[in-house]
Write a structure and sequence with these properties.
Elements (H helix, E strand, L loop, with lengths): L21 E2 L10 H9 L11 H14 L3 E5 L2 H12 L5 E5 L3 H4 L4 H6 L2 E5 L9 H7 L10 E7 L9 H13 L3 E6 L2 H8 L4 H4 L4 E5 L10 E5 L1 H13 L8 H13 L4 H15 L2 H5 L2 E5 L2 E5 L5 H10 L2 E2 L7 E4 L6 H17 L1
Parallel strand pairs: 1-11, 3-4, 3-5, 5-6, 6-7
Antiparallel strand pairs: 2-8, 7-8, 9-10, 10-12
Helix pairs in contact: 1-11, 2-11, 3-10, 6-7, 12-15
Length: about 350
Amino acid sequence: MALSPKLSPTAPDATGETDVRADLRSDTVTRATPAMREAMATAPVGDDVYDEDPTVNALQDRVAELAGKEAGLYLSSGTQSNLAAVLSHCGRGDEYLIGRTSHVLVNEAGGTAVLGSAVPWPIEVDETNHFSAEDVRAAVKEPDPHHPVTTLLSLENTVNGHVQSVDHVASLASAAHDRGLAVHLDGARLFNAAISEGVGIDAYADHVDTVSLCLSKGLGAPVGSVLVGDRNTIGRAYRVRKMLGGGMRQAGHLAAAALHAVDHHVDRLADDHARAARIADGLAPLGPGAGLDVVLATNMLWITPPAEVHGALVDHLKEDGILATYWSPTMRFVTHLDVDDDQADHVVDSFHRFFERV
């Protein structure tokens, strides 16, 4: 029995062959580049549980330096990294504040509650997934034995592709810190936000206590996230990682790919944003006549066709070898390292050919 639904009937077979012409389901589908594979093959390694893997240590130090933090911890996934962060800030029964659409709340299987007994308090967001400093202040509970103790604000950037500006993150974090809360930032796509804003990730990290940075999305590494913060918090996260079964041995072979991504793939995120904009521009003429609504957010496109053609459009795009996240009513397309201009143009052309015949 399959444990999860297949996203596509056209995934690569055992030989690697596929009829997919453009895979825009997520920026997680990237393959390691030849240079990454070379780095993995030649990486010096040791036993990371003994803190003896030089490549893991180099990655942790490099990402911590980029973020302006004291220490970093390499974890196998963003979900594990966020979970370790929340449990490092919250005790059993403590409450954390979080945006209603945040990944930690919606897409991480309730791990903070199940494994840490930390209670999430969702804050409503607007159409770009923003909430305000006043929302934060209003959500913090007064001292009362009937209420959980609010100890943490959990933020995210980008949120569904939408950038939260440095000033906005600073205002939210300031409101939380003024109330005695710690602040964690799920920075799964923080590099995308930083490139969009023309700043380094330290401009964001300076305002928060911990940041989880995913290296297997836009940066194209095959595995892993790095959690950064002060040494005491990262020390607590190290223990949580062990409890979660996240201790790895010669993990330097994986960390080498991530280190290569950090050193070579950050600036090129602008190419992903440009290709998403290329698709949005190409689809713009379909808006008034065909009723196609397109929202561009960094490397993501949220595309809503008329309800009556949604199913037929999905079938047409799949026949053209285009994979996306075909939710209804709104589809998601994500550009990444393995999407080039020709593939972006193929997506635009496919949409146009469909609407010419309906």
